[in-house]
Amino acid sequence: MKAKVGVYICECGPNISERVDIEKISEELLSSGEYDDVELVVKNYGLLCSGDGKTYLEEEITSNAFTHLVIAACSPRDHNTTFINVCKKTDLNPFLYKMVNIREHCAWIIPDKDKATEKAVQYIRGGIKRVLYQSELFEKQLDITPDVLILGGGIAGMEAALALAGEERTVFLVERSSELGGVSAGLNRLLPRQGGEVNKLSSYRGEVENNEHIKLYLDSEIKSVIGFLGNYEVTIGSGDEEEGVELVVGAVIVATGFKLPEINGLPGFDFSEKDEVHSSIEIERMMATDRKLAMRNGEEPKSVALVHCGGRSERGYCSQICCSYMMKIAGYIKDQSTEIEVVEYFRDLCLPYKEDQKFYDEIAARGVEFRRFGKLEVDGASVVSTGMDGAESKQEYDMVIVAPAMLPAEGTEALAGLLEIPLHETGFFEEEHQSTNAIGTTTDGIFIIGAAQGPRGISSSMLFAQASAGRISTQLIPGQKITPEVKVSEILEAYCTGCLTCLEVCSYGAIYFDDDRAISVVNEAVCRGCGNCFGSCPSGALRTKHFTNTQLMKEVAEAVRER
Amino acid sequence: MSRDSVLIIGAGLAGMKAGLLLANAGKKVYLVEKLPLIGGMAIKDEESFPNFECSTCMVAPVQQDVLQNPHIETMTLSTVETVEGSVGEFKVNIKKGARYVSMTDCIGCGMCYEPCPVSINNEWEEDLGEMKAIYVPTAGSLPNVPTIDPQHCTRLNGSDECNACAEACMFGAIKLDDKDEELVIEVGAIVIATGSSTYDVSSLETLGYGSFPGVFSPLEFERLFASNGPTEGEMTIRDTESVPSKIAIVHCVGRKEVGYCSSVCCMYSLKFAHFLKHKIPDAVVTNIHSDICVHDKTYQKFYEGINGVDTEMRFCSSMADVCVSGNGSGLKVNYPDGKGKEQAVEVDMVILAAAIVPTEGTAALAGILGIELDGFGFIRSLSENIGSIETSREGIFVAGSAEGPKDIQTSVIQAEAAAGKVMALLSAMPEPVAAESETGE
Amino acid sequence: MTEKEQEFSPNIVGFLCNWCTYAAADLAGSTKIEISPAFSVVRVMCSSRVDHNLVLSTFFDGADGILIAGCHPGDCHYGKGNYFTRRRYAQLKKVLETLGLEPERIQLAWISAAEGNRYAEVVNSFTEKIKELGPSPINNNQRL
Ligand SMILES: Cc1cc2nc3c(=O)[nH]c(=O)nc-3n(C[C@H](O)[C@H](O)[C@H](O)COP(=O)(O)OP(=O)(O)OC[C@H]3O[C@@H](n4cnc5c(N)ncnc54)[C@H](O)[C@@H]3O)c2cc1C
Ligand SMILES: Cc1cc2nc3c(=O)[nH]c(=O)nc-3n(C[C@H](O)[C@H](O)[C@H](O)COP(=O)(O)OP(=O)(O)OC[C@H]3O[C@@H](n4cnc5c(N)ncnc54)[C@H](O)[C@@H]3O)c2cc1C
Ligand code: SF4
Ligand code: SF4
Ligand code: FES
Q1: Statement: residue B117 has pLDDT above 60
Q2: pTM of this prediction?
Q3: CATH superfamily name and code, B2-97+180-195+359-427
Q4: CB contact under 8 A, B228 and C116
Q5: Facing residue for A535 by CB, picked from C23, C33, C84
Q6: A66-124, pLDDT tens digit by residue?
Q7: Chain C residue at shortest CA distance from A430
Q8: What does the H/E/C string look like for chain B?
């Protein structure tokens, strides 16, 4: 069958029609004799993107039974989708249509009308040549399972589980320890902006345990995972057991939290076992269980130093929540006795929540002294600090409480390897985009929330959890299918030498190695079609659908043609 | 059907992101924006922290997705007038302001600006540039359809019979007889994403804003740096149009007055220092600061990359005592240092890193919606419920900096969370009787 | 020769990434900045899509200069694509040398969506540079 190509030039009102000679374009195209093997129809229209224009185009495509379509108009960023939607209403596969930009690339930037016309002819020729080498592509619909796997049963994991579990969606919650709750379960109180009381958090545990749509796996960890958004096959198990539980889920949420380092060993901290130097979390637990702050000998300390930012310089980040919780601890002490001298040593007060300034004012008003340091060392139970005025002071305390920097949870690196998602240089999991996709990873369907994503407090962890629920509940809708990108890459078996280069460059882990055939294969459900792998393949085995070299070279050929 | 539709107020990143998620899940989304363009505060920045990423590149694809999404009805120049009913069946009255240019006929060619005889200050550009009475706020505005300022257009304000733009438009898109429209929609849930503003720096007399042309507010500075801004990215001091060589950036402006830390000012102040150094390599930049609040895992490194490289960070023991005064043709910034001793920096430009405050109209909107504000005038989220974005009224959620100062990351996180809350809320509601499907694909 | 040089109108191909530089070209267009007609745009999804083969074929087909342009480092829509572009570009320069082509005939540029003016500057100055360099030797031989 002879190809029949429709070329529609949009006048764009005066924008194109006054700056290029549309009639001359038609003449040149039709008289060139270059398209003998195709039937060429060239027409122009006032405004193709208008309602009338779209109807016109639809009728033209159908009545002419075009095999290919070229639209010469504005930028594809403006109206490619518009014309794809028109094609979709007809029998013409939208991938057999090509938009050529003769407005931004000719009419508007080349003041000389003849030259602009010539340029437009060149671009349209390229479009015609290219479209003839384009192939039909079809959207595929993939079945999904709406169920979700959550790793980590701290506050973030529990919040996500409760937000997602329902009639039509089962949540599998895997917790490495023998108990739900994570770090926040051991706290004594919360911040005033969080209502102070911890019972709200405790009630969460019960809600999770009693929810029939949440399946709990305690003392368990993930063993393997394979798949893509909508279809992940995972194995979970406990300890070294060979046999694990196999599950199919649509998405995976990582909520494995954080840990605190030993303070002894942090640079600038030098003390012995006997010295009254404690980590903040020990104090929280002491207060939660004994309801009383006491030294190892059981006596109440008369003076306490609260030291912020332990190990922060070395870690290279601020842990976001320590300034606030240290004020809370100062409050515990003043609650116990107003007689106890409390000094907070801080570097910068980081109170990014609007309510915390007021909390600070209250704590300061209760006689807690805030002392800013430029440099600080803890020597036994003495604090040696250099203030902003450069003066060094050394003071001994009955007790020193340190807020150490939050670190990624034990096993984070191994888990990242298992899930094939990258780690940030701080050691926490790395998001796909700091600002606009902070819970997504480079793998669609794997989310990172709570303190596993980066140091943060409970409120922020819970928000991240709700955000993951938002993403999953709008993407994996029970009973509905998903449509992955079609302009993806593929690997031609005959050419692939199995060098694995492409696996390395793909940011999305979309390529896997097929051991049986000893070649690499693109997982089309994961690939986003950037073409980076194409650029890397030394064997010419890769093809980027809709952007093949043959197609691009047709455009190039017209661009470099002797004029 | 109200169970399947959602109203989002404010089309900044938070509103757009929430809208896209819900629309992709098949919900009908009404996106109401008071300005003629969508995108919010983020499109005013040339580059955003912490990656110095081009904001247009980050936001424009989102704007485009919103405008092309068949499930989203974007209403610009629009405001919410009244809200009746309750969760699941809110009845909302919306006033769609007249644009005087047809959204369907206009193709955004811009032929109508030239002939317009009226020039006015461009408010969106922080009054640093001018525009015609028919205008788009900035090159690249989306939707790319101009609007007419009815106060200044001589035809619309009745002072003459000018018809210049209508004559210039080849598409008959100008509708000088356009009227405000009232429409009523029914929605199941509402998301407030009206963003925030910056503290009015002119109210702090000691900082010299308004008295000295070399003193700038942060948004003015963003527009000065922007290559699509009024100076095409040339950072010059107003009036003299000279390029500054010594610049002071004062942190925490208004913090004491508003009573909280605004969480993003340190970061944007550091960003500004980098901008300055990048465009004016010989510039001497000084940041006068107190607490440095760099709280994301990526932020401290950002700070370390700029501290001592692009700027000299000078600690000030009392930000409330910073004072800007004239110094011949230049400026002088006095501040107490770490010892409490008075120091001075001589500069020719000062940028005031103003606190983030509730956006104008927040209280009125809260009144219309019947929800509470917090003590600072932001939309109150039930934060004592911990990490909650629910407002005091069921079915109404808040996302982004309407809830309090925050960076883009947290704004988007809240937007995603809001989408989750809305999905959960609406799917838990009983199926309406006799479902006549009108959301045909 | 000098006369010939003056009338030499080069063919320059620009491979622009969809997300940043193509958007910058749109902005330059809508602000109606003049751009040399010697320059032709070919849109690719990401600058990392541009492989050696495409570049060399373009030279063999007769291009006098090639511009590869994409998002600023760190801003690639696909995460790290343009870091690979940068490496491939460095290699390409070497390849051109071995082929006897002036390495200046290819240029890499990072142009963001907001930089319409810069886009025009980069394209126009690159065009000037290619004009100074004269016709590509490959091109010349073919024409002879
Ligand atoms: C002393 C102190 C006081 C604090 N006070 C406050 C406060 O008042 N207010 C506030 O907002 N924040 C406070 N915080 C911060 C708060 O503890 C954290 O924000 C919160 O715990 C983060 O929750 P999460 O669920 O992300 O992580 P976590 O609480 O760390 O929970 C992670 C869970 O995942 C499990 N896990 C880890 N790895 C795996 C794996 N591979 N597989 C399966 N499970 C795994 C862990 O066992 C744990 O149960 C305080 C922190 C400290 C240290
Ligand atoms: C100078 C400055 C620089 C910054 N730089 C950065 C940066 O580099 N990186 C970063 O992460 N963050 C930065 N931020 C913070 C960032 O701008 C905000 O986090 C972000 O814009 C918040 O998004 P939003 O959608 O909540 O609000 P906005 O972006 O403010 O959007 C709100 C929208 O709602 C509309 N609206 C308001 N009221 C109504 C109403 N009543 N009815 C209808 N519509 C209404 C507004 O017109 C606007 O379009 C900066 C802030 C400032 C002030
Ligand atoms: S095109 Fe991009 S996303 Fe797809 S396989 Fe290649 S590198 Fe990965
Ligand atoms: S780079 Fe090419 S040859 Fe190497 S594994 Fe990938 S497709 Fe095969
Ligand atoms: S998408 Fe622009 S360089 Fe990769």
Answers
A1: yes
A2: 0.89
A3: FAD/NAD(P)-binding domain (3.50.50.60)
A4: yes
A5: C84
A6: 999 999 999 998 889 889 999 999 999 999 999 999 999 999 999 999 999 999 999 99
A7: C79
A8: CHHHEEEEECCCHHHHHHHHHHHHCCCEEEEECCCCCCCHHHHHCCEECCCCEEHHHHHHHHHHHHHHCCCEEEECCEEEEEEEEECCEEEEEEEECCCCECCCCCCCCCCCCCCCCCEEECCCCCCCCEEECEECCCCCCCCCCCEECCCCCCCCCCCCCCCHHHHHCCCCCECCCCCCEEEEEEECEEEECCCEEECCHHHCHHHCECCECCEECHHHHHHHHCCCCCCCCCCCCCCCCCCCCEEEEEEEECHHHHCCCCCCHHHHHHHHHHHHHHHCCCCEEEEEECCCCCCCCCHHHHHHHHECCCEEEEECCCHHHCEEEEECCEEEEEEECCCCCEEEEEECEEEEEECEEECCCHHHHHHHHCCCECCCCCECCCHHHCCCCECCCCCEEECHHHCCCCCHHHHHHHHHHHHHHHHHHHHCCCCCCCCCCCCCC
